[in-house]
Structure formats: structure tokens, C-alpha cells
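Pasting as-is:
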Amino acid sequence: MIRLPSTHAAVTAPLVASSTRFPGIPIGRSLLDGRPFHLSPVLVHDAVLPATNSLALGGLGSGKSTTAKARAHREILHHDHQYVVIDSFGEGASGEWAALTRSLDGRVIDARSFTLNPVSELLPPEVREQLVRSLILAVEPTALTPQATHALQHALNNPKSTALGGLVDALTNPEEGRWPAARLAEWGVGAAIALSRYTDGSLRGLFDGEDAGLPPTDVSIVSFDFSRLDRNSPAIPSLMAAVTCWVEHVWLPQSTAVHRHLVLEEAWQILLSPATSELIQRLLKNSRKASLSLDVVMHTLSDLGEGKARDLARLCEIVHVGRLGPEEAAIVGVLLGLPQWAIDRIPRLGPGQAVWRVGPDYVDIIETILTEEEATLTDTSGRRRKAQQAAGITAGVTVEQEIAPPEPDDQGQDDGDQDDGLSILSGEWDWDMPPNVLDIRHQDAIQAAQEGRCSEAADLAALGERDDIAAHGINSPEAVSWISTRALVADLCGSPSQAAQLRATVARMGNNNADWYGPAPDTSPTSHPEPEQPTPDPDDNPTPASLRRLWPAAAVILALSLGIAFVWAHPGGDVTKAQQAEHTQQARQTQESKAEAPPPYKGEAGASLSIDGVSASVTAYWSEDEKRVIVSVSAPYDTVAQYLRIDGGGKTATSERGEGQAVLVERPEIELPVSDPRADVTVRVAIGGATWKEGSRAESREIRLSPVTGIASDAKSGEELG
């Protein structure tokens, strides 16, 4: 994967989450925009996601294993996928995948009782050789020289080699072959010594029987439980070597599922073992051809060393990173090519929250959501709760309450204080998502400006404004809030005049309190805050149509008021006809002046339009001094726009997606002088869609924008644009 420059990644990566959708099982919700997050990697087009392998990282209690188990549960139930799990950690008398495996009618195999004859005639010859080679490498990594390999192959063809003991005899007392027996015996000494560990040494009983003892291949999930073995036991590498070899040569060829998954819990043990690392790397590289996804779960990449960590990161297209320390987060971020904003969030993630990277471009922060059943099946904190109860400590809720659906608070937010820290969802997956759970885009832009990265801050604000205009409309609070952010960025970057113009635009739009995303840092020289302005009532900003309906009534009321005042001033009723005529004439003039009063001035206009299959937005802002107007065109992040152009008043601005560029970051804009601030402005907007090629003519439309009504319309047909 080619890593984007840090500035480009920081600009583009946070915005993908606002609109990108993936097919598949529900996983959770985005903490950037609140939308539901779905993903089944095998269902994503291979142009977007070439491989389906995944890597889950995170510290203790981060929720990485819970997310892996929830994904497996849903893929099996929804899509009939098949799983093999190497379960290296557990609680109580079984591994942590045992409850889930049994609930799906799977098979849990205790590694302590697992026996296998690696040279059984039930296995194909190539499987027998690979199994034996793996067992030798597990205990003696340097034993298999080219000469020893030849001696082993010769011994495997000996009729005595129907069990591991017979194979050792064939190595130490070989029959004549292409090479003399004495030389074959000399070459086979190292392999024979290694295999003797399984026939006469500490590993006796695992692989020296006559029975092949192969696990079933037709169940939904098989979990090999290594949790009750000593973590330092030499049997673990050997057993893992046998299991991974069985996966490659028996399970994959015999499985009939549409897609298969191999889950490696505590994967560092497997990836660092010479007996298994080569095999796992081979499975990773051939996973697409084998219709296999390797789901690797481990604490951190630094356990592997730089070389193996880079190889693993390169072969995994899906990565989710839970809470890690700042130093480890920085290492992981560099290896995975994560943007800086995501790296900064990793140490502050809560349980069940993770930074997800899907493919080369998509980055989001996802909170896993569980059903009640899944919360029970994936619970791994029973011992901790018992310890707390024994010490008289309560976590504020009982065990039953921890796995029950969260009650909404007054704002409709979930309490979120579950056992694993993961949100629990009851019932169906059609939940109502909040409009915005946590929008950190504004703070990212402001922080960039505070750190002196003014160009990046301006790009972040412009991209955020563009997306929110496309999603919510040009006059929405979400879009207006970006103008306030741009003003603050301008202040921090030393452009007070531009900041004043932007704030004036917000004031004209009636959104003085547009900082809905949270408090911004105080940049004023005084520490005394100004009194908060009252929020205007919606009726305080009437539309032009409503004003036209109110003017006649207002004129009549004014005339009546003048008449009443006159009668009050002359109670005797001694009024001349000339005085009556004068008052009538004044009332008529007042009514005429009210009727002829110009409508209110908005000073901005915009609308959405569609050209060449691309949904875009055109906006215009008139300056506070009413001497110029800035017109721009933009397209949402997830469109296929290749080319944008805007022409007007003899000026032209363009933006073209370059080779290898993920998105049109720049939006073209032109600044035009105006002599009459109330006159409409007409521009031509051209957009090249998915099929546009450099040098070809792009489709275009002429758009008329009114600073008085704020309406944009087609200049030829007069059709008002939405």
C-alpha cells in the first residue's frame, strides 16, 4: 500500500465515513456521523477491496475479540460462512470462543486431548510430508537442511512409516536408495532427534498414535481450545502447526461453504513460530483464490518485529484498532498508514470503539453494537465481576443489567455502560441513528489552524462545508456552522478581515449561534464574554412571500392608528374637511410606500444540481460591502466527479482529479465585481462524470443566482433548483 502524504491523508480520510456504504452484516455505528456501519468483506467489489483478510488490534478490554466474535456470529447466521478458530485464551474451564461455538452447533476441540497421526494412510502423501515438516520445525527450527529433507522424503516412503515411531526407525535405519543407506542415516539424524521429542520425550502422546483423529469439516465452526495449556508449553507450536496444516490441506479442500474464515487469537504465537509462520503467510497470500479470510486478533504489531509486522499489515485490507497507548498507537499508525487525526484518537477510545480502515481510503471510528444474545455469548469478564462482588465493589449495575438493552436518557442517548463497554442492541437492527453522535471535524480544522497548518485547516473546513451542504442543504445549521468555523480559522491564521466577512454572512443568515458542534477556543484579547444573544424565533425572519401578504394589513393598521390618534387629539369632533383630507392622503402615501418597499436582502444563494450523473452544489456569497460576489461549485466526496469548472464574468476556475488522487479536494471558485448588489448573477457550471476523459467537453448548465431571494434557477428554462 502506498501511504499518502500526512497532510493529504489528514484532509481526505475523515470525510470518507460521511457517505461511503459497504454491503454485509451490521457491525455498529460511526462515531463521526452516527450512521450505521455494515461490512462483509467478501461482498465488497474486488476493485475496492482486493483481499478480505482482517487485522484486529487493541489492548486488554478494548473489545477487539468481542467484535471478532460478533462478526463471526452474524456471518454464520446471515451468510452460512464457515469458521475455524485457534483459541489461545479463555476464562474458567474453556476458551473464550467456546460458548459461541456451542451456540452455533459447532465443535470445540480441547488441545490437551487432541491426538493426530501425521503419517496416517488416511491423509494424502503431500499432507503427511507437510505435517511432519511442521512438527520438526516446531521443536528444531534448523533441522531441515536440504540433505535432511531428502532423507525425510525417503523415510516417508518406507512401509514401516505408518506411525511416527516407525518413521523415526526409517530415518535412523534407512533402506538403500539413490544414496547409500549410511549417508541417508547421517543426513536424517537431525530430523530423527526432533521427532523423538514426540515419541519418547515431553510431547509424547500427541502425535505418536495410530489414529488420524481428524476434526470434522462439515460443521459451521470448529474451535481448537489452547487456553488450558501452559502458555510456555512446547506443545503449543506443534499443535498449532498441525492445525494450520490440517486447515490448508484438509478443511479448505473439503469445505463446501461459500466462504471460509480462519481466526487466529493471540496470533503473535503463530506468526513468530517457524513451524507456522511460513504456512500462515502462504494462506494470506493465497486467501483470495482459496475463498478464505484470515481474521488475525492480537494486542499490537510491535510483538512481531518490524519486518513481519509490515508484511502482515500489507496483506490485511481490513484493520480495526482499539485503545492502545500513545507510543504504540504511533507505531501502529505508521505501519498501517493511518491519518494523524485517527492516530491521536486511538489512546482515547473507549471499550468497543475502534478506528477502522477498510481498503486504502476508508477510515472511520466505529462503535460495535451487540444484541442481548451476543453480549452473553461474548462475555469474558465473569471473573472480574466475581472479584468485585467479593470485595463489595459494584459497578453501578448488576450482571443482569449489564447485558440488558440500555435505557435511553433524556436526550435519547444510550447509557453505554456495558460489561465490555460495548453498546448492546435489543431486537432488530433497524435502529434510529442520531443525526450526529460525535462530529470532530470542526475541532480538527481548528486544531490544525492553532498548530499553524493553515492550508490544511482551510481544506478541512471547505470539505466539511461541502459535504454538509450536499447532505443537509445550503441553509441548514450544519452548513452554516462551517462558516463560523472558517471564520475562526481565518482569525487564527491572521486574516481578520476575512473572518469579519464570514461572520457577517452568518449574521445575515440569522444563525448567530451556529457553533452547534461545541465550544470553540477563545481567540479574543479580553476574558470577559459578551452577553449571549437570544435565539431568534423562526417568525422573526419571514419569507418574501409572507411579507407581501402582511404589507396591506400593516398599512391598514397604520391608517387606523393615525385616525384613532387624531380623534383622541380632537375629542370635540370639530374637524375640518381639509384636515380629514390631509390625514387620508397621509395614510394612502404610507400604504403605497409600504407596498413599494423592496424585499429583504439575503446576500447569498445556492442550490443542488445534477450534471453528467454527478450531484453537486453551487453557492454564491456577496461581500459585506456589496461590491463583489464569490461563486463556487463542489461535489460530495463519494461521487464519481472527475472534473469541475465554473465560468462567469470573463473568469474561469477548474478542478480536475489527478492520477491516483482519491478525491477532488479543491473546489473551483471565482470572484466577480458587482455594481448592483441586488442584481442576479449568471454563471456556467460544467461537470465531468465517471466517463469524462481529459480533453473532452464536459456537460454544463447556466445557473442564475439571486442575492435577494437566495434562489438558484436554470438560466434558460427558469426552473428553480432545489
